[in-house]
Specification:
The structure holds two protein chains of two kinds. Chain A is an alpha/beta fold. Chain A has two domains: 250 residues, P-loop containing nucleotide triphosphate hydrolases (Rossmann fold); 55 residues. Chain A is 47% helix and 18% strand. Chain A is built from 16 helices and ten strands. In chain A, the strands form two sheets. A six-stranded mixed beta sheet of chain A has the order 6-7-8-3-9-10, with helices on both faces. In chain A, strands 2-1-4-5 form a four-stranded antiparallel beta sheet, with helices on one face. In chain A, strand 7, helix 9 and strand 8 form a beta-alpha-beta unit. In chain A, helix 4 packs parallel to helix 8, helix 9 runs parallel beside helix 10 and helix 14 packs across helix 15. Chain B folds into two domains: 78 residues; 291 residues, Orthogonal Bundle (ABC transporter involved in vitamin B12 uptake, BtuC). Chain B is 68% helix and 3% strand. In chain B, the strands form two sheets. Chain B has a two-stranded antiparallel sheet with strand order 1-2. A two-stranded antiparallel sheet of chain B has the order 3-4. The longest helix of chain B is centred in the first third of the chain and has 52 residues. The chains are: A alpha/beta, B mainly alpha. Chains A and B meet through helix 3, helix 4, helix 5 and helix 7 of A and helix 10, helix 11 and helix 12 of B.
Chain lengths: 337, 458
């Protein structure tokens, strides 16, 4: 075949200088990241790090305050996601997503859930309903095709036997799988999964790993996932991005990220005593966590680390003051009022 | 209330008697001022108090005896039946012939209904039964099926549906008056105009949900009615528009002229033919509504409506434009409302804003809810029960023997209406047919229980 076109080598999604503010709260600040085509990219980070906000910006549920999100499709089309409506992103840019708390159409059957996902294809085949209403064979063929496609996905997620049951009747793990299959039925090039393993038992999350690897291998869909379950993240992702307080603190292969001291500090925190042991002495006004970060990130010598930690602490206080006026002032205002 | 199963029969009667006395005392306390006394004006315009102890005693007696019967006989009987049912082995019998072919039987019955009535009562006597009963019910069936698209399928609570009915009726009345166009030309025009108004209403309210949407649609219904009242140059205000042109059967008029229907077919002149024609006309329109709804449910748009009812955010994540989807639901529902409206105008020969009050919207919505949202058959049955029930009340002359000559049963229809609603909602909280039938299936079509479906934004 021909040499890969520039479009194929370009990252499928590139997020540049993304910021998202909710009033005074900065959920994501100046974040840049890339997801490569045909790879599984994981976004991890502690609770409240801004992972879901990034997702909502990518899928158009939030309009970012700043930044550019470029999606490059395999046919070379480039879409600026921040300028598109959520449903247009799915339709034109071919980005599909799942939700942290499963959002199935619980009153529709499993099969119908997968058919709703093929809405736009079927809509065109039915001549925007008018031709389909007359019972033309084009629509009937398209409808049969849609059912076959749904059957294919049901086989993959092992739910063929329950195709005619309401989706709300399925056990939780099956609902999670069905939501992924439903997203895949919209023929995405980028599949965004928001905590797909949440609430799954170890066996189910192993099955999920297999499903995601199959999707990647068979359809070539790039996957972006948010996950807390490290067994999923470390086993299947090609690339891991770590967020904390709305900024990127690490980016690389699972192996690099796993050994990144900043990640360890962000996830585990560092105990005060350990820090004390490490540095030999502590100074007032230095936050233990900052000290740990500075120590682990720097070359390790004591006094410099403390200085660096002090700087971090000061910066943080500075930021905090900018966003939250001094408590005294507010108190006084309140008293006068 | 729960009685130990080992209790002896004698004890049941004793406790029933106790409960009955208690209920009687309670009702006496409740009703002594409400029913026992009545304030009235005498000839000198003075307020006088008039005791009605006879009525009070009757009511209290009914409560006492009723409570006794329920406690002594009905409850033990229900208990026994429940136990018997629990003891029976679980076996799902295939539904009976009647149940399986219910829709076909109902349609067949509706088709032969005028013929049966004529044989029973003669052409003159059939007027009442075909017009007041048959046509009246079918108009509401059609309206409720139209509203069902908006409320039952798309899950958007619309309290102003009667506005589209009004738009349809006035479109026909005015356009036939101005341009002399026939019913058959104006029927689609009325539908299109009503659908346009559906879209006009839809645009601003799409961002609203639940209660807010309901309030705005309610207001829209009132706005249309007030416009009809106040725009007197066009609508003639509260006087209404009369002498609306009648419908024709392929150009054959239903009148006494030589080229009229009766002469053409060498039949004696009677107004019954026109009514029967109207009956089949509205039956055809209603069946068209049903057919389109059934077809639409299998189309992507119908599925999108139901998906919208279940979860709007998930819909958007699947690339469904929720704005146009909601608009199509509003427009389609409104179009059928418009059809029904133009039929209403042609049937009455007269339209006035009085016919399009909020109570109409409420009745139509009540039919949809009572029938089971989304279920065509349930809604048809509900319309039959509610509208037919009201009409039947007019016929119950024997009630006068019980309650006296001044008793007019129609006046109590709202009371009976309300009671019936409460009873049905207790007995079947999701309407007559609560389950939904899936639009597509892989192995077999299984009804989806009402416990999984959502009511949507409504």
């Amino acid at each position: 075949m021909a040499a890969p076109s520039p479009a194929m080598t370009a990252p499928i999604l590139s997020v540049e200088h993304l910021s998202m503010k909710f009033g005074g709260l900065v959920a994501v600040s100046d974040l840049s990241l890339e997801a490569k085509r045909g790879e599984i990219t994981a976004i991890i980070g502690p609770n409240g790090a801004g992972k879901t906000t990034v997702f909502n910006c990518i899928t158009g549920f939030y309009k970012p305050t700043e930044g550019m999100l470029t999606l490059t499709r395999s046919n070379g089309e480039r879409h600026l996601l921040e300028r598109m409506h959520d449903f247009v992103i799915t339709r034109k840019a071919k980005v599909a997503r799942t939700f942290q708390n499963v959002r199935l159409f619980s009153g529709l059957t499993v099969l119908e859930n997968l058919l709703v996902a093929q809405h736009n294809v079927l809509m065109a085949a039915s001549g925007y309903t008018f031709l389909g209403l007359l019972g033309l064979p084009t629509y009937r063929r398209a409808a049969d095709g849609a059912i076959e496609k749904a059957r294919g996905w049901l086989e993959k997620i092992d739910l063929v036997a329950r195709a005619d049951d309401p989706a709300g009747d399925l056990p939780y793990g099956a609902q999670r799988r069905l939501e992924i299959a439903r997203a895949m039925c919209s023929d995405p090039e980028l599949l965004c999964l928001d905590e797909p393993a949440a609430g799954l038992n170890p066996r189910e999350s192993a099955e999920l790993n297999q499903l995601l690897l199959d999707i990647k291998a068979e359809t070539g869909t790039s996957i972006l996932l948010i996950e807390h379950d490290m067994s999923v993240v470390m086993e299947i992702s090609d690339h891991v991005i770590v967020l904390e307080y709305g900024t990127k603190i690490s980016d690389g292969t699972p192996e690099t990220v796993r050994n990144d001291p900043r990640v360890i500090a962000a996830y585990l925190g560092v105990e005060d005593e350990e820090v004390a042991d490490l540095i030999g002495e502590t100074k007032p006004g230095v936050d233990a966590g900052d000290l740990a970060v500075a120590t682990l990130a720097g070359d390790g010598s004591g006094p410099e680390a403390i200085e660096a930690a002090q700087k971090i602490s000061e910066e943080r206080e500075h930021i905090a003051e900018e966003h939250h006026p001094h408590p005294h002032e507010t108190g006084k205002d309140g008293g006068e009022a | 209330m729960t009685q130990p199963t080992t209790r002896k029969t004698g004890n049941v009667y004793a406790s029933a008697a106790r409960e009955a006395v208690l209920a009687g005392l309670l009702s006496l306390g409740l009703f002594v001022l409400i029913i026992g006394f009545k304030t009235d004006q005498n000839i000198r315009n003075e307020l006088i108090i008039e005791p009605r102890f006879g009525l009070l005693i009757t009511v209290v007696a009914i409560v006492t005896v009723g409570r006794f019967v329920i406690s002594a006989f009905v409850q033990p009987w229900l208990e026994a039946r429940r136990k018997q049912k629990a003891a029976e082995p679980v076996s799902e019998a295939p539904p009976s012939f009647f149940r399986r072919n219910f829709a076909k039987i109902v349609i067949a019955a509706a088709l032969i209904y005028p013929a049966v009535i004529i044989t029973l009562t003669g052409p003159a006597g059939s007027l009442k039964w075909v017009d007041n009963f048959g046509i009246q019910i079918l108009i509401y069936v059609m309206l409720a099926w139209g509203l069902n698209i908006v409320v039952g399928l798309a899950g958007l609570l619309d309290l102003g549906y009667v506005a589209f009915y009004a738009v349809g009726a006035y479109s026909y009345a005015l356009l036939s008056d101005w341009f002399g166009l026939s019913f058959w030309v104006l029927l689609p025009v009325a539908g299109i105009l009503a659908a346009t108004w559906g879209v006009i209403l839809g645009f601003p309210v799409l961002r609203l949900r639940g209660d807010y949407l309901a309030i705005v649609t309610l207001a829209f219904g009132e706005i249309i009615r007030l416009v009809l009242i106040n725009w007197t140059e066009v609508t003639k205000g509260t006087f209404g528009i009369s002498n609306i042109q009648k419908a024709t059967l392929f150009g054959i008029k239903f009148d006494a002229s030589p080229e009229g229907f009766a002469h053409l077919f060498h039949l004696p002149i009677s107004s019954a033919y026109y009514k029967i024609f109207l009956y089949y006309l509205v039956l055809g329109l209603a069946l068209l509504t049903a057919l389109v709804t059934i077809r639409l449910r299998r189309m992507p748009i119908g599925r999108a409506w139901e998906a919208l009812r279940e979860d709007e955010i998930a819909c958007r994540s699947l690339g469904i434009n929720t704005v146009t989807t909601k608009l199509t639901a509003f427009a389609t529902g409104a179009m059928f409302g418009g059809f029904a409206g133009s039929f209403f105008a042609v049937r009455q020969g007269f339209v006035s804003p009085e016919s399009f009050v909020f109570l109409e919207s409420a009745t139509i919505l009540a039919i949809v809810v009572l029938g089971g949202m989304g279920s065509l058959m349930g809604i048809a049955v509900a319309a039959f029960v509610m509208i037919g029930g009201i009409e039947i009340l007019r016929e119950l002359d024997f009630l006068k023997l019980v309650f006296g000559d001044n008793f007019t049963p129609e006046l109590y229809r709202m009371l009976i209406f309300g009671l019936a609603m409460v009873v049905v909602m207790v007995w079947k909280p999701r309407g007559f047919v609560g389950s939904r039938s899936p639009s597509a299936f892989l192995h077999e079509r299984k009804a989806v229980s009402a416990s999984f479906t959502k009511e949507g934004n409504a």
